[in-house]
Amino acid sequence: MKRNTFLALVFVLLVFSTLSMANIEFKSSIYQAIPDSLAYSAAAFYDGKIYLIGGLDIAGSVVSSVYVYSNGSWYLGPSLPFPLMSAGAVVCDGNLYVVGGENSSSIFGGILEFTGNGWKIITNSMPYPVYGAIVFSYNNKIYVIGGYDSNGIIPSPPVTYIQVYDIKTNTWEIIGNAPKPLGYSAYYFNGSALFVVGGYVAVGEASDLAYIYYPENNSWSSLSPLPGTLVGGALGYYENYLFLVGGLYDVNGLPQQGEILFYYNGTWRNAGIMEEQATMFSASVEIGNTLIILGGYGQSGLQTNAMQAVSIYLPPPKPQIVSVISGNETITVKWYDINASGYYLTYWSNYTNKVTINVGNVTSYTLKGLQDGETYYIQITPYNSIGKGTPSEVVSATPYSVPNPPFIKVKIGNKNATLSWIDTFNGGFPIEGYYLFVNGKGMNLGNVTSYVLTNLTAGELYTIGIIAYNKFGNSSIATTSFVAVAKTNLTVTITKEITGFLLSWNSTFNATYKLIVSHQNKVLVNVTTTNTSYFVKAPFGIYNVSLEAINLAGVTKYSFTLIYYIPPLPPNVTWAISLTTIYLNWTKSIGAEYYLIYDNGKLIANTSALNYAFNLSLGKNEIEVYAANNYYMSAPYIISDVTNHIVIINSTEILVTVPQVTVGNAENTDVPQQSTSTDLKSAIIVVVVFVLALLMILVIVKERNDKYW
């Protein structure tokens, strides 16, 4: 053991100070010493014990030790697999984890899980390995905010990343950034909000800023800044009060250690008392209203082995009354326990003065000897050593000997409703029966506690009333209302667009909808919504669609197969002829996946390109170009206004007929069709080419020349 180890045998209060301000009281004390003098350790309260993990010892060595505090004494727990300092310790989903940290050679970019008798690495792939970061757990995920990603050889500012580790999927994700770089900040997470105070925001630059981070929606807000800058402090939170302990606190260039501040009415206030041993870069855990400070650097600049406690005491909060039950000349009041030292009960009526009774540390009390039929008003006020707390709301009750009205429950079904009720107080005598009223019409049910209403009209409001009676008479009426419902009907429409398809639906009643869209057994969309439309961005294909409408009456399911293709537009073709080769070019047609080319009614090409060339046959050629996909085919391209062109070879005229291309109107069809036009054949490229072989031309010319010779 290191210095001051004799304190390990002592668990007594050495120094005790108090402050009372604005009905807030602080107490500072020193408890049993830690077995070693450490700074930059991590700490967590787990399984009813305090775990002090790793750190930097007084010799300047990073340690792997784990000390456990239980039943008033420290003992050595299972050591880490390697030394770590400036790590984070957190309890998540019932397990203890150590996150990040550094040692003399590297930064640990992972998470260690405590197995009970040792530690195991569950991930080693933190996107940005850091130390000195903010670490907390929320929704079965571990959050790591800020910290340093440099091992200290070259000074660098802390980072702003919000890194999140999902324990269930064993994956990391960076979900955003903090407003400022944050390193060695004081922080506390209360289960829904993270409070962050001070810390390094640049190399050697401490901050006076205070923030609140909400992991539910990944947002930040600001609190009033500190009067000075702070780094390496510890933050506590109790009953909506923040209190700050220790750290290096600098006000106007005057460094201070051991300060205790608290946040009250939007302002940071000095508590007026100090840590018994001023510390910074210590570990801390909060248990109830007490912040336990473990180790850290003392005023001497060396590590300390002090275990300190700073407690906050407040007047008790406002109690909540659970029930008020009237009886024969009695009223029984029950309320929730708020850890007060005791309670005052004050009651009065319109005919009596207020009477206050110190009922002690109880959570129920019965007033007796009251006047039946007279209304009494009751209020509960808690108290503790600080003083009286906030009084409860005023409740009223009238004692009598008939039953109290029953408590009604309604379970709504498909055009039916099941009514059930329970007694709150029978007046001191057995209940003999109940009257049921439905929209004003009554019936005596006898001594039953449930009834089923059937053949209800969906959308109609039903008002239910139940009266209990005993031999002394009827209770007042208990009422409730509900709107009858039925399973909804669905009507679905589909709008196909270029980038996907829009599913729209109508239902006969309001509902929550669950939409599942899958393709080849792969789920592409799985959403639950109250909207009545959803656009699915997807490529052409065949999809399975399931839509469920869910309301109180049940579930209506609508499933179908959607063939998502659109009819392509006809291609816009241009062409040219070189000798016996024709060259076709066209622009991309909306909705097309490929193009079909026919010559004289015969398919000669299936291509996804935007051009094609081939040799013409002798004689007349009829060419058709279609845009197509796996389900539709467009109309062919239309040619009109054919003109003749003349080619002259050796003074011999050879007539070549070449049609000129113009764009006409075309209609899309689902399947390929032969043209039935009687003019230029709708959507046909007609090429009439009289091709003569060059040798034959030369022979004819030669014969004619020989004749004249």
TrEMBL record:
Organism superkingdom: Archaea
Coiled coil: none
Domain Fibronectin type-III residue range list: 315-405
Family matches, as InterPro entries: FN3_dom, FN3_sf, Gal_Oxase/kelch_b-propeller, Ig-like_fold, Kelch-typ_b-propeller, Kelch_1, Kelch_domain_containing_8
Key words of the record: Kelch repeat, Membrane, Repeat, Transmembrane, Transmembrane helix
Pfam families cross-referenced by the UniProt entry: fn3, Kelch_KLHDC2_KLHL20_DRC7
Membrane spanning residue stretches: 682-701
Name of the featured protein: Fibronectin type III domain-containing protein
Organism: Sulfurisphaera javensis
High-level lineage: Archaea, Thermoproteota, Thermoprotei, Sulfolobales, Sulfolobaceae
